[in-house]
Amino acid sequence: MAILKPTRCQCQSRNMKQVLRHALGLFQEYYQIRRQDELNEITLDKMREPRCGLLDLSDQTDRSRNNIWPKKHLTWDFHFADEETMKVMQAAFDLWAPNSSLSFKRISLNPDILLSYREGFHINIDKKITDMCPSPLDEPGGVLAHASFPNGDEDYVKEVHVDRAELWHVHISRNPPRTHSLLYVITHEIGHTLGLHHSEHQDSIMFVMAPGEIKFPIRLSLDDILHIQYPYGANYHDSTITTPPTTTAVVTTTTTKYINHDPCALRDLDVILIINNRLYIACKKYIWSININENTYENPIVISDYMQFLTDNFTHLTAAYQKPTGNLMIFADNFIYVVSYPSYELIQRLSFNDFGLPLTTRINTAINTNKGRSFIVYNDHIVGEIDDCST
């Protein structure tokens, strides 16, 4: 009996199966689906969710995606847009500006960022690009929009293409069921035009999938802010952070002051915490985020801006640690907060009395052993154990 050698076609087919199996495994791992290396209903449902048209996982070997704008003032325009659409666009850019050193202005002639409705196989608006857009837009559902990354050339127009076939809610208010928030999607795509990749954090604007229910008012997550400030820097002036209102009539603002302090020069630190290769240093009302791998950091941010559950008379953090569940235990003044990570949403607020401690207790530090036991040191010499299972 002759033994047939696999033909070239058979080899390619076998290799393709391996590639597809590997890609499927990566997809399931990325979206925290129990990895089975086979298509199942959970995986298919995830694939059908509304999403951005760019890759879920960035190809770090593609250097064109690692560039940023060489200038800090950028211009934009939306091709053939009505007044309400322009309001939404302005609100989206207003979410990025106060959280970085970038500024944005709308101009109709030769903008840096050009947005438009497109559908199916389509071309770019910029006439200097004669080729078809390499990413066609599908029918309703699936891909909602896509954008191009900066390439380091300040004269090269970046485009955002929004799928015209989708049912859009073109207002700053909360979108009704079975519609997509244009504000949320555009804010995401603007992030790409500024050089940001997709985030693994589901509470991030830059997460690849559009959430089924969007929290209002829309705001950048801490992860988004850290990633936009890393290449461009923080807003070094007193900044007004604008969040879109629930109606188009009123805009609410909160003022945030960024102070230019070097954490290496600080003499007294309140809290030091390491999470996911980032070192967080808290001092008074401010916190620094330091990338451990790259030893880089920007100006501090105001803690209460991103932990809005803190009391109005908040002064400083006294201790913090991460529980085995991933949630955070944060000690601030006379309260103990159980906070989800990375969304920083409050799960539970406890007083010192709830822990059997007098309100005059002074917390020195808190320690998690990563072996199921956590301890606090208070009043300089007393050690108490915390039952993490009950909080």
From TrEMBL:
Q: Which GO terms describe its biological process?
A: collagen catabolic process; extracellular matrix organization; proteolysis
Q: What is this protein called?
A: Collagenase 3-like
Q: Which InterPro entries match?
A: Hemopexin-like_dom_sf, MetalloPept_cat_dom_sf, Pept_M10_metallopeptidase, Pept_M10A, Peptidase_Metallo, PGBD-like_sf
Q: Where does Ca(2+) 1 bind?
A: E166
Q: Does the keyword Protein transport apply?
A: no
Q: Which family does it belong to?
A: Belongs to the peptidase M10A family.
What does the entry list as the binding residues for Ca(2+) 5?
A: I272, A320, A366
UniProt keywords, alphabetically: Calcium, Hydrolase, Metal-binding, Metalloprotease, Protease, Signal, Zinc
Which positions does UniProt annotate for Ca(2+) 3 binding? D138, D163, E166
Q: How is the cofactor bound?
A: Can bind about 5 Ca(2+) ions per subunit. Binds 2 Zn(2+) ions per subunit.
Which source organism? Answer: Dinoponera quadriceps (South American ant)
Q: Which domain of life is it from?
A: Eukaryota
Binding locations of Zn(2+) 1: H122, D131, H146, H161
Q: Which GO terms describe its molecular function?
A: metalloendopeptidase activity; zinc ion binding
Peptidase metallopeptidase domain residues: 65-234
Transmembrane residues, as ranges?
none
Q: Which residues bind Ca(2+) 2?
A: D112
Binding locations of Zn(2+) 2: C52, H188, H192, H198, M206
Q: In which residues is Ca(2+) 4 bound?
A: D270
Cofactor(s) listed: Ca(2+); Zn(2+)
Q: Sorted alphabetically, which PANTHER family does this protein's record hold? A: MATRIX METALLOPROTEINASE, MATRIX METALLOPROTEINASE 1, ISOFORM C-RELATED
Q: Which GO terms describe its cellular component?
A: extracellular matrix; extracellular space
The UniProt entry annotates the active site at E189
